[in-house]
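Re: Re: ligand-bound prediction request (bumping)

Still looking for help on this. To restate: I need the protein modeled with zinc ion bound, output as structure tokens. Inputs repeated here so nobody has to scroll up.
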Amino acid sequence: MEIRILGAHNIETNNTGYACILIDDVLAVDAGSLTANLSITEQQNLKAILLTHQHYDHVRDIPAIGMNFYLLEKAIELYSTRTVYEALSVYLLNDSLYPNFLEKPQEKPSIHFNIIEPGRTSIIAGYEVLPVSVNHAVPTTGYQITSTNRKKIFISSDTGKGLDDCWKEVSPEILFIEVTLLNKKESFALESGHLTPALLQQELISFREIKGYLPSVVLTHMNPLIEKDIKAEISKVEKALNIKIEFGYEGMRINI
Ligand SMILES: [Zn+2]
Ligand SMILES: [Zn+2]
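Reply:
Sorry for the wait, this slipped through. Here it is.
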């Protein structure tokens, strides 16, 4: 399995992008920065997109993908919860902001939306996909993705603390998890459902207690304006847990 990070930040600039991770060029998790990073041929090779939640930095390129597939006269498979389906149809693909590609063209809509339910595994684009609820400001689903050769990753997406129930369900080799804020912003992190380095440390300790091991950890969703300071705080977490934690970045490729 090759994992390619297209967007690893919560701010878009010329060198940072919104949330988007691509697996083996065929399966995308979130669509914050999907279209600008893929040629039209690469976009046509996509088999499915999994959306974690409806926040703009995770769904931004869905209308663009809808238009591209509409003009290509093709359909893309999109998977998420009913909540995300409703948000897309009301706010983005509502025939006002942009055409409703969930229903256009009538014979075969450009976006074929599939409703998933947390806790229920399905086979998507040849992968075993287990959606698991995490703790964010709006209902959010992380995804454990298992390849045919049984390699497992878990992508948490945006989440705050309190992941014990989630850890019981997953057993990844690599954990892609967010760190958005600095330790001094802990009360805002608790309120908005995000992690600071210290909160991440608690979650990793509970992962180790529940599962008896720690996976490789790759961070995403950093605020690039404070990434240097986040790095300093993460180095304390690395020392405390005696592990190495990697920072995701745009263009990063990982093979497992
Ligand atoms: Zn969010
Ligand atoms: Zn986000």
